[in-house]
Q: What sequence folds into this?
């Protein structure tokens, strides 16, 4: 419809639904570059530059669908940091809509087949015209053991590039080891593609809600204006990855949005007793080419999908105590089926929904990090409902040995509503190793479980021994009995005190000692006894002290004395302390005979109201030998007050009674306190006691909370009032001195709110570590540029590799951190900044001056871990102003003896620098440049500006490789005291030659010679020429002969040009001359000799037909191969015709002439329209300046 002036027209004479394809061209200076015609007569532009000036051709009205497509080629190849090809690299290209346009894997040479990518499209239908831009692309490059690459690329021309892949230092398994991993299953996120993507209308609140959650943040994500088919900038919206809500900035209301994204995904561990580590998980997911598990330091990891431990038939585990996993928003971990355990330095779930966790039932649990054989272990659990309120669930605890077998299982008693504690004592023969703890809670049909892990370690010889004191719980006054003490090491071996054990008996009612530090008798190793009687009826505490290696340790036992007649049967009953209306009351009883043996008696229980009326009665149920339980539920209207519990036991002919009581109070009157303190401290550390106070409805209340701390002897160490951090949350801190005694300390906490009180007791242990049990780690820093910030971390770890604060806090004022510059001058510490990141972890920074001396610097760290005990560590690092990035792009020529490489030096610094560089060829990888055993060696200097690069236009060539085989080309660049090296392996090959044979035939004789030299036939009629050489043969007949012509590889009678791409033969025919006619008789005397023949002219010089080097009448791929063979070779050439423009170089100008003559018969250089040639050359990057010439364009504008 526009008429003339177009470069390309898909005419209506073409068949419907066919397209013209234009490759490797330039459409310029046209009124319209492209015109397409209705009914599918379109145009495909491949690697063609144009101005996107187009129009449409039709008759009357438009029919059908027609497209104009723009495409460009993409050819990457992959090398490692040494420049060697990398096979097996997966590369994918996703267009702007998230659709995969190609997915390829590199071959042995590190390359893939060149791909053609659509970048732009115009389409016309009966409904109208639309354009689509497919840029920018997202290109992902993945190879196991290498760092994954993801980059945005806009294709506006054919792209050929080399991608250098760096080693992934966080991959610690070989590819074979990763392939052998079992017990891990990866379910990839579900992708929502453009074709089936949902569309949402932005409401007046500028929000939409995506249908599928949680959204996976490691995958492709794009929101589009569905009508305009354009990408919405990510700065115009915010995404809640948990619930799928997208909030837009103002102006998007009533816009229809199409969403392309991925959701879900999980990793399931079913490895059973075969422990998996975080390194194993990272290696497995890298093997799957998955981006869902990442790290920047090898310690802290981010997981973008769910982690599930266990299934219906297998348990799972993940153990890496020094590593942590943070979950992306919307994702978490869960134990399913058989469950399992996780032992990490941390598990962090992002984007949670409150303390209740949002599930119907939630559980958190804790236990000690390690125990010794013979110790009591304790597991604490808290069970909350979806509102975050504690609930009285049933909590079962299962402990598994290191080999996966069950050690024990138990029901965890509820301490207060929602808080549970289960204990078990390890045998002295308990195997060492990591134990798994599975905690299963059920409540009102819901179930939840979690897992813990602790280690059983060999008890150190200097660990405090234990003192166990025993006495009858109830004794008759004025009747002798024995108090015993048993002293043993943590290994369970009985040991004696340094001297005799000392006993103190304290009257707990009168608060006075009735026996003070009296020696006990030693009747066996580690066993002591003290006989005693009392005339008083009261409660006593027996305290036994024992010194081992001049350190005192204690044990205690409480007992009572009463006026009574010893019975053959005794019953002890406990009924709890406080209940609320509606609670279940549990009454526990124990029956023993006169010798203290448990017996199966018949136990009945009666409960009475506060006014004395009977409430309920019945027979208690025997749980196990001698232990009984009676339970009932209070009504919601039960009276407030003290209830009496009477129990009666009958065994044989004996009967025994006991009385207990409990209080029923209004729910709103109940008060609870839960406190916690660390497990182990060392002298000089700070102890933190945390308390939580809440009422019966689990509402946090601001009570007055006090703390009392008692040392291992039972003496008061200190006391004070806790500080409220937030309503109901309290903290009390105090410091241990450097001389604090080792042992177990008791912490008693008390809360007072209005007229109510609540109590909780916890304990901690003080131990001493030797310096050898401490570890100080300084992060390794490589090279820093001037004006940049040097940043390093220090980790202080105890003997369990747990971060721990040292005795002296690192600061720049305490000379903890010393930095030496390249001249060994100490940097003024006021310029060093030290910051505590968390317990035991510190960061220090220092800004390198712009004029800092380049060279090797040192950081020295001195940490006083205990008073008077210091550990020193150091790290050497460099300061460099102009670091260089070095690449060997390719080996251009690997034919002996001249080896040529394409190389690049990139100045990554902020200042220009004159680099000294050397390059060499060696026959072993380990051989450095510069030794006497180099095969070839050169050196030079080059100046490169800041952030500039230098690529040798004439390449680097070494010409002393005479033997074929495997070699390494090395390029080393020096700056200051530093250097960068690039290495590329190659195979040196011999030159390929083909045999040319000349035959002579006919009745005459003559000689055939060649250019280049070699044939002189005559006598020498065969010669080997390098493959691709163009040989010109000339025939010279003898004086009595004529040259009749060529046959074989040539024809005609002119110069014979033979392209030696394989073995060739040529036949020259010489015939005797015909007899000369007799002289013509003269006459008239004029024109003497008029009958004589003129002399035969000499042979003409070789005739070159432009780019048709093999003279087959067409410029094609054979000629292209010949040109490549002579590329960048030196004059004179074996085939002089390859230098088409006769400038004594075979380069890009000759290449552009060949392209110009492509498909034609070949034209000598003098006949070429040089103006058109320049147009063509510009299309291939030969001439980059627009309007370089004047005159009409070569491409017709008709």
A:
């Amino acid at each position: 419809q526009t008429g003339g002036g177009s470069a390309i027209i898909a005419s209506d004479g073409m068949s419907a639904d066919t397209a013209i394809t234009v490759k490797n061209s330039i459409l310029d200076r046209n009124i319209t570059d492209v015109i397409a015609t209705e009914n599918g007569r379109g145009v495909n532009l491949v690697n063609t530059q144009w101005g996107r000036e187009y129009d449409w051709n039709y008759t009357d009205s438009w029919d059908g669908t027609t497209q104009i497509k723009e495409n460009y080629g993409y050819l990457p190849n992959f090398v490692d940091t040494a420049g060697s090809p990398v096979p097996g690299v997966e590369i994918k290209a996703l267009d702007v809509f998230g659709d995969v346009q190609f997915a390829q894997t590199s071959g042995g040479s590190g390359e893939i087949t060149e791909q053609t990518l659509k970048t732009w499209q115009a389409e016309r239908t009966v409904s109208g015209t639309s354009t689509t831009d497919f840029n920018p692309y997202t290109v992902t490059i993945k190879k196991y053991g290498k760092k994954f690459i993801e980059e945005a690329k806009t294709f506006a021309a054919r792209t050929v590039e080399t991608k250098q892949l760096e080693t992934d230092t966080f991959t610690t398994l070989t590819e074979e080891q990763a392939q052998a991993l079992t017990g891990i299953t990866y379910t990839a996120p579900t992708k929502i593609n453009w074709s089936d993507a949902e569309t949402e209308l932005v409401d007046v609140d500028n929000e939409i809600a995506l249908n599928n959650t949680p959204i996976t943040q490691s995958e492709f994500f794009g929101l589009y204006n569905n009508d305009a088919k354009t990408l919405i900038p990510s700065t115009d919206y915010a995404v809640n990855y948990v619930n799928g809500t997208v909030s837009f900035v103002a102006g998007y209301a009533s816009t229809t949005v199409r969403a392309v994204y991925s959701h879900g995904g999980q990793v399931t561990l079913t490895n059973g007793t075969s422990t998996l580590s975080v390194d194993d998980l990272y290696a497995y997911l890298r093997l799957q080419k998955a981006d869902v598990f990442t790290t920047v330091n090898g310690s802290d990891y981010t997981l973008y999908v769910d982690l599930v431990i266990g299934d219906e038939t297998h348990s799972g585990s993940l153990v890496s105590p020094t590593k942590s996993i943070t979950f992306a928003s919307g994702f978490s971990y869960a134990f399913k089926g058989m469950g399992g355990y996780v032992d990490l330095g941390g598990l962090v779930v992002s984007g949670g929904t409150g303390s209740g966790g949002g599930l119907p039932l939630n559980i958190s649990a804790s236990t000690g990090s390690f125990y010794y054989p013979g110790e009591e272990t304790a597991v604490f659990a808290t069970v909350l409902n979806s509102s975050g309120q504690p609930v009285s669930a049933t909590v079962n605890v299962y402990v598994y040995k290191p080999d996966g077998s069950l050690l024990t299982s138990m029901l965890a008693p509820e301490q207060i509503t929602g808080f549970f504690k289960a204990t078990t004592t390890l045998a002295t023969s308990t195997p060492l190793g990591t134990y798994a703890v599975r905690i299963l809670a059920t409540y009102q049909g819901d179930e939840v479980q979690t897992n813990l892990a602790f280690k059983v370690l060999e008890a150190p010889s200097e660990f405090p021994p234990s003192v166990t004191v025993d006495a009858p719980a109830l004794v008759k006054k004025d009747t002798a009995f024995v108090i015993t003490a048993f002293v043993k090491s943590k290994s369970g071996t009985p040991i004696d005190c340094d001297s005799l054990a000392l006993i103190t008996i304290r009257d707990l009612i009168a608060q006075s000692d009735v026996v003070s530090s009296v020696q006990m008798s030693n009747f066996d190793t580690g066993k002591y006894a003290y006989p005693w009687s009392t005339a008083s009826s009261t409660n006593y505490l027996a305290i036994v002290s024992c010194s081992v290696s001049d350190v005192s340790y204690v044990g205690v036992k409480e007992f009572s004395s009463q006026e009574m007649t010893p019975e053959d049967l005794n019953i002890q009953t406990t009924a709890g302390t406080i209940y609320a209306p509606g609670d279940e009351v549990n009454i526990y009883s124990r029956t023993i005979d006169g010798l203290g043996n448990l017996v199966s008696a018949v136990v009945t229980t009666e409960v009475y109201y506060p006014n004395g009326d009977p409430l309920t009665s019945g027979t208690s149920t025997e749980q196990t030998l001698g232990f009984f339980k009676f339970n009932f539920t209070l009504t919601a209207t039960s009276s407030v007050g003290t209830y009496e519990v009477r129990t009666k036991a009958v065994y044989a002919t004996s009967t025994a009674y006991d009385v207990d009581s409990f209080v029923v109070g209004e729910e709103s009157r109940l008060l609870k306190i839960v406190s916690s303190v660390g497990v182990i401290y060392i002298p000089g550390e700070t102890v933190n006691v945390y308390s939580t106070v809440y009422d019966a409805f689990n509402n946090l209340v601001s009570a007055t909370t006090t703390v009392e701390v008692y040392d291992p002897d039972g003496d008061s160490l200190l006391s004070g009032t806790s500080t409220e951090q937030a309503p109901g949350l309290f903290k009390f801190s105090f410091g241990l001195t450097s001389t604090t005694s080792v042992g177990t300390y008791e912490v008693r906490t008390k809360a007072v709110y209005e007229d109510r009180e609540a109590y909780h007791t916890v304990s901690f242990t003080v131990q001493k570590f030797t310096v050898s049990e401490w570890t100080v780690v300084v992060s390794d820093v490589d090279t820093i540029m001037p004006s940049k910030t040097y940043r390093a971390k220090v980790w202080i770890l105890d003997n369990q590799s747990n971060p721990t604060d040292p005795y002296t806090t690192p600061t720049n004022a305490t000379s903890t951190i010393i930095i030496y510059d390249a001249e060994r001058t100490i940097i003024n510490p006021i310029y060093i900044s030290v910051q505590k990141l968390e317990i035991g972890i510190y960061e220090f920074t220092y800004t390198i001056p712009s004029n800092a001396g380049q060279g090797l610097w040192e950081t020295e760290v001195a940490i006083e871990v205990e008073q008077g005990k210091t550990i020193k560590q150091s790290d050497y690092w460099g300061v460099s102003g102009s670091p260089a990035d070095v690449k060997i792009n390719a080996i251009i020529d690997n034919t002996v003896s001249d080896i040529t490489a394409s190389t690049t030096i990139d100045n990554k610094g902020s200042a220009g620098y004159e680099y000294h560089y050397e390059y060499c060829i060696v026959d072993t990888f380990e051989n450095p440049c510069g030794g006497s055993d180099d095969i070839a060696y050169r050196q030079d200097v080059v100046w490169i500006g800041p952030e500039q690069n230098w690529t040798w236009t004439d390449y680097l060539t070494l010409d002393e490789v005479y033997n074929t085989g495997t070699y390494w080309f090395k390029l080393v660049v020096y700056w200051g005291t530093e250097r960068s090296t690039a290495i590329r392996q190659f195979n040196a090959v011999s030159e390929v030659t083909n045999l040319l044979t000349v035959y002579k035939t006919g009745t005459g004789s003559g000689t055939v010679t060649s250019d280049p030299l070699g044939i002189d036939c005559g006598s020498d009629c065969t010669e080997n020429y390098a493959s691709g050489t163009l040989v010109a043969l000339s025939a010279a007949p003898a004086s009595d002969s004529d040259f009749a012509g060529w046959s074989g590889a040539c024809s005609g009678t002119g110069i014979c040009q033979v392209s030696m791409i394989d073995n060739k033969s040529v036949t020259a025919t010489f015939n005797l001359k015909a007899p000369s006619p007799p002289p013509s008789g003269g006459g008239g005397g004029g024109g003497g000799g008029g009958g004589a023949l003129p002399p035969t002219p000499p042979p003409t010089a070789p005739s070159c037909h432009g780019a048709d080097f093999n003279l087959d009448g067409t410029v094609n791929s054979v000629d292209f191969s010949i040109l490549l063979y002579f590329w960048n070779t030196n004059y004179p050439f074996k085939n002089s015709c390859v230098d088409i423009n006769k400038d004594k170089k075979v380069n890009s100008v000759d290449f552009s002439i060949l392209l110009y003559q492509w498909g034609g018969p070949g034209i000598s250089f003098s006949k070429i329209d040089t103006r058109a040639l320049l147009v063509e050359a510009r299309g291939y990057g030969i001439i980059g300046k627009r309007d370089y010439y004047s005159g009409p364009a070569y491409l017709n504008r008709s």
